[in-house]
Amino acid sequence: MNTPPNRMASIRDRLGSALTSPERFLWGATARVCLGHVSSGTSLGGRVGELAGRSVLIVTRDQFAAALALIELDGIARRLIVCTPDLPSEHLPAVVAKAGVDAIVSDDDRGHDGLGVPLRVLCNGTVTPAEETPVTSCRTEWVLLTSGTTGAPKMLVHTFASLTAAINSGQEGRDGQERRDGQQGRDGQEGPERQKLQGADVVWGTFYDIRRYGGLQIFLRAVLGRGSFVLSGAGEALGEYLVRLGAHGATHVSGTPSHWRRALMSPEAGAIAPSYIRLSGEIADQGILNALRSFYPQATIAHAFASTEAGVGFEVHDGLEGFPASMVGAPGDVQINVADGSLRIRSARNAVRYAGEEHSTLTDAEGFVDTGDIVERRGDRYYFLGRRNGIINVGGLKVYPEEVEAAINRHPAVRMSMVRSRRSPITGSLVSADVVLKAEPSASGTIADFTREILQICHDSLAPHKIPATIRFVPALEIAEAGKLARHA
């Protein structure tokens, strides 16, 4: 399929040019569509011409409908604002105002009367044949919402080029040269893995929602590659999604470390047998990497650093937490630096700017995005400690909850943990930990043994002020909509 002379390349154009046999599909919880039909059909009732050149808010209940709308509108709409499913309705007016929204695409008839948006179009989640309508193409801006825990989300502007830079490069080495010696590339991606990512038999799945940066990256990898994609449904239970992934033969599955910890706790964890597992969005500690290697021995296991602001920074395949110190300061398409302990990234994958915030600065004077992720060098490797804004202050000393969790999660009986602050009249705060075990203890004395063993691990690897004052064993931990531990202030 060739791009018409009056059209710029878009997802649909690239989708059409990549079609091969066998057929490729998007599978939702209750519907499916052949990608060949998507490239030439419509999910918008033939009304795409009305949306040309507009700033379009995509606000759907189900991500399957959102996926179809995004494919159809890229290269047509002037701007696509991808609304996360958990965005509180009270924040919608600010989103509409900042992004200059003049059209809404939704998959239901819920009212948006108070928003003052003149055009509304229904995306019904099905694809029907459509006559080709001449429309003026444009370079679509993509506006993604951050997943902040409190307050209004920030709105990050990406271009199609910034969203697909890592995909187009095949995640090759950061100097653009693919490694052919079978060793880890400088951003962690191996040459053979690139071939697997682009094979016609690849079936992608993700625990992320595609309306967030992490999920959108996987969606674009599937659609722009030569594979298929299995989407989770609105409100679908994790176990049900795992079964569907297995039924469709998912080969490549991604999610946050918390997503994967929950998956390993599910009785349906064995329903999938992926050849490639990817973690991102949270610190991938050695505990979860080891657990995944043990449960899915056939899989290549990678952990990536990526954020909505910085884009995809790098990917690591050596099975170890952290990343090689050789990445810092090395030349290449992605440049990594550390200043005052904070990881900084500069590349064509960075977001362009904040939407509607002309005075907010995304990058520093050198063009680096300060990620706010604190790292520490130990020998020839950097390790993630935690987020700069998540510190627990214990008598004036800093504690990063994630660093303590990584120590706790090394215990072989621990599935996951969350560290929080507990008030203290002497030090102001103390460290408290909630711990989920892999299995129910067989005897009451076992809890005391586990507590003692976990504390010993902490004593062996952490400074005294970082050791939990209390450890509580709980059946589960709350996971936020973004797939991360819900760290309430």
Structural class: alpha/beta
SS field, number of helical segments: 13
Strand order of the largest sheet: 2-1-12-11-13-14-15-16
Shape: globular
What name goes with the CATH superfamily of the largest domain? Answer: ANL, N-terminal domain
Uncertain runs: 1-7, 171-195
Largest sheet descriptor: 8 strands, mixed
The number of distinct structural domains comes to 3
How would you sum up this structure, described in words?
This protein has 489 residues and is an alpha/beta fold. It has three domains: 11-153, 3-Layer(aba) Sandwich (Rossmann fold), CATH 3.40.50; 162-386, 3-Layer(aba) Sandwich (Rossmann fold), CATH 3.40.50.12780; 391-473, ANL, C-terminal domain (GMP Synthetase, Chain A, domain 3), CATH 3.30.300.30. 24% of the residues lie in helices and 26% in strands. Strands 2-1-12-11-13-14-15-16 form an eight-stranded mixed beta sheet, sandwiched between helices. Helix 10 (257-265) packs across helix 11. It starts with 10 loop residues before the first helix and ends in a 16-residue tail after the last strand. Mean pLDDT is 88; it is low at 1-7 and 171-195.
